[in-house]
Amino acid sequence: MKPDKYIKNYIDGALQPSDSGEYLDNYNPATGKVYAHLADSATADVQKAVEAAERAFPEWSNCGTRVRYRILSRLADIIEQNLEAFARAESIDTGKPFTMARSVDIPRAQANIRFFATSIIHFASEAHYSENESINFTLRQPLGVVACISPWNLPLYLFTWKIAPALAVGNCVIAKPSELAPMTAYMLGKAAIEAGLPNGVLNILHGSGSKVGQAMIEHPKIQAISFTGGTATGREIARIAAPMFKKLSLKLSGKNANIIFDDCDFDKAILGTLRSSFSNNGQLSLSGSRIFVQAAMYEKFKDDFVKRTQFLKIGDPFSPVTDLGALISLEHMEKILSYIALAEVEGGKILCGGDPIPMKGQYESGYFIRPAIIEGLSPNSRVNQEEIFGPVVTIMPFETETEVIEFANATEYGLAASIWTKDISKATRVVEKLKVGVAWINDWNNRDLRTPFGGLGKSGIGREGGMEALRFFTNAKNVGIKY
Ligand code: NAP
Fold it and tell me: How many helices (H) and strands (E) does the chain have?
């Protein structure tokens, strides 16, 4: 399974250029250089893909769960057998450390497909029995042609997380990865051919969100949209798709609280905070970007956290000792640096990092910055209200449980939170009051595939993950039998 210089669409079982024949540049963020090109698709490509999907739907939706299980399992096997190649491609495309792509992104992509391949064998629907009168049972039927649109931060990881449940229950899929990180989605198309996925069941389109993405969400034959990305894009998708009564699942941005009480296990809280702050260069919707530390422990925690952050190794994504690689793009790096400047304007103190790193050799034009910790900002400052999506966190003291709940809930986002304390009653009380879709106690980013996932407010609507995803991608038809 090899990456190629020209990333083509996968439509109706074949790799093909876009209808226009045009390509966009694909950058390696660590070198800042163009290293591949992706099909610049538009409405005509979406039309072709939808027609292929519609042709494939009757057979795919009726071939039975065992057939779908077998083909999807084969697809998971192919990713597993090509782990190195996929991980290498993911690292080059995103700038993330190869070690992370190899141990997290690609194994998870494989696990997503395997999980949903097997889950349909166990998927059951409800029955409601009324004595001496009737039985109601629920048919769970695939929706038809559905769209899956994913972001660049966990490319194959999130792409497969959407595609796998959609296919498993019998839908045909039109999917689009981010134009910033399309390579492993392209390779997935090749793997689908090798796995024997029937033509038209999965179609992968490349190009820009504003062109091909927009054409997908506007297409009247697309019944449902599963989208992960920024809140502004999610709002635009809802604006177009809601009046067309498409089923929508929107997994959007976050501005998550990381709450550290002074009775926590200090070492575990520090290590967890390092991970939640800077994993994947802070380019995770689940990053704990607002850190609240109880006053009695604040100075000690802050000093230790700053020291450990300064020890993180930033640079060559292929070095086994690298903790943080490159940021995804020049534009994104500039956005992050603008927030560091804003933090100073808002009265914040940069405790460490926040500056671009001058690199030498092949990485001299890459997008590298030192991870930043900022203190002295109010919970209501813009830096504490807007998603930065980079290696930038703020740290703030708090006095009481009531106060920190107020601070944590003081954003319009509602994705995730972590709480560090040995007092499980307190942790549970706090969790109950947090306005989030996902919370961890003495942990961060423990993502069991069986659990529901999603946010509140500006972090989105709907739940995916586990059975929730199978429910999203099916229509629940109730059937009442009188006897
Ligand atoms: P984005 O700009 O919203 O893009 C996400 C996807 O939507 C990309 O494939 C993009 O294509 C496409 N797109 C853009 N405009 C579109 C349109 N008008 N119609 C249809 N599709 C369109 O987000 P991103 O910058 O890739 O990702 C970062 C964001 O994702 C962050 O805010 C992060 O919090 C969020 N995220 C959320 C979760 C979660 O589970 N809640 C997980 C990961 C990331 P192009 O790439 O071509 O623009």
Answer: 16, 23
* pTM of the model as a whole: 0.97
DSSP state of 324: B
Residue 92: its H or E element: helix 83-94
What would the pLDDT profile of 55-107 be if each residue is shown by its tens digit? 999 999 999 999 999 999 999 999 999 999 999 999 999 999 999 999 999 99
Angle at 406 between CA 404 and CA 410, to 5 degrees: 115
Count CA atoms closer than 13 A to 459's CA, side-chain side: 25
Q: Which atom of ligand 1 is nearest to the CA of 237?
A: 19
> Do the beta carbons of residue 303 and residue 373 sit within 8 Å?
no
Tell me: pLDDT of 1 over 80. no
Cβ–ligand 1 contact at 436 (below 6 Å): no
Task: Determine the atom of ligand 1 nearest the C-alpha atom of 332.
Answer: 25
Of 178, 225, 239, best ligand 1 pocket probe by most atoms within 8 Å of the beta carbon: 178
Domains annotated for the chain, with CATH where assigned, are 6-252+459-482 (3.40.605.10), 257-451 (3.40.309.10)
Cα–Cα distance, 292 to 304 (Å, whole number): 15
